[in-house]
Amino acid sequence: MTGLLAASTSAADKRAAFRAGLASGRLQRFPGAFNPLVAALIQEIGFEGVYISGAVLSAELRLPDIGLTTLTEVAGRGQQIARVTDLPVLIDADTGFGEPMSAARTVTVLEDAGIAGCHLEDQVNPKRCGHLDGKAVVPTGEMVRRLRAAVSARRDPDFVICARTDAAGIEGIDAAIERARAYADAGADLIFTEALRTPAEFERFRAAVTTPLLANMTEFGRSEPIPAATLESIGYNVVIYPVSTLRLAMYAAEAGLREIYATGTQSGLLDRMQPRSRLYDLLRYQRYNEFDSDIFDFTLGKDQ
């Protein structure tokens, strides 16, 4: 039954694996999962971790990514996803859902949900999508207090606290570098600089900061797509593909729905659908059947 109803790897071991990955010298690839089934697929294919995007979670609720989701919603989805995968899960915790004390509580709730790490950002609350205009960042000192509160609340020392800065597009790269250094001094284990544009900017940031770094390879944003091998050669430690799976799924769903609407049948779409056998394989139906048979495989005695 191990690993069937839930992951066989403990939350502590997943966090230790995340820490080891950050120190390995190899790029840790974390595609976004919009549900637990996608997380299972990410693990099966061989990625190193799973990412949960705040923008995706908002979009699933048909909300824009402007800080409308709550800690309860985010932690609940995070727990559902972390439960099914042996991979470490990194989750977007926005600005910590409030003031420094709220950021501290956020860390404890996410730890209890089995998450391996979270990132907190230096935007003004309520936040904005990192690749859109209209953002504003809090003073460095305020973000430092946010991070110190989060670090002080951490019970598992392997829980990774990542500091995201949106300052590059507002105050410039030099200011973002200074913020990154201050955030590392405040206890951040990983630095996420949003909306860098070119490999040269990623290289500049890597040369200036000694802390492990995360690259965001989202589509249709300000950063040009950079191959994983290039990011690894630059010296980045983690790359996230936050919205890729949702965009793929929504594109396919819209195209299919429009065809059904236009033709009155899904018969022309079957070669673009996951077959039942593949879904059952991901769900491990056969193992459930075997478990069910083992539990109920008995005969009643004459006196029963």
Automatic annotation (TrEMBL):
Classification via CDD domains: ICL_PEPM
Pfam family, any one: PEP_mutase
Reactions performed catalytically: (2S,3R)-3-hydroxybutane-1,2,3-tricarboxylate = pyruvate + succinate
Superkingdom: Bacteria
Known pathway: Organic acid metabolism; propanoate degradation
EC number: 4.1.3.30
InterPro entries noted in UniProt: ICL/PEPM (IPR039556), Isocitrate_lyase_ph_CS (IPR018523), PrpB (IPR012695), Pyrv/PenolPyrv_kinase-like_dom (IPR015813), Pyrv_kinase-like_dom_sf (IPR040442)
Example GO molecular function: methylisocitrate lyase activity
Co-factor requirement: Mg(2+)
Keywords: Lyase, Magnesium, Metal-binding
Protein's UniProt keywords contain Cytoplasm: no
Protein's job: Catalyzes the thermodynamically favored C-C bond cleavage of (2R,3S)-2-methylisocitrate to yield pyruvate and succinate.
Family label: Belongs to the isocitrate lyase/PEP mutase superfamily. Methylisocitrate lyase family.
Name assigned to this protein: Methylisocitrate lyase
Organism name: Nocardia testacea
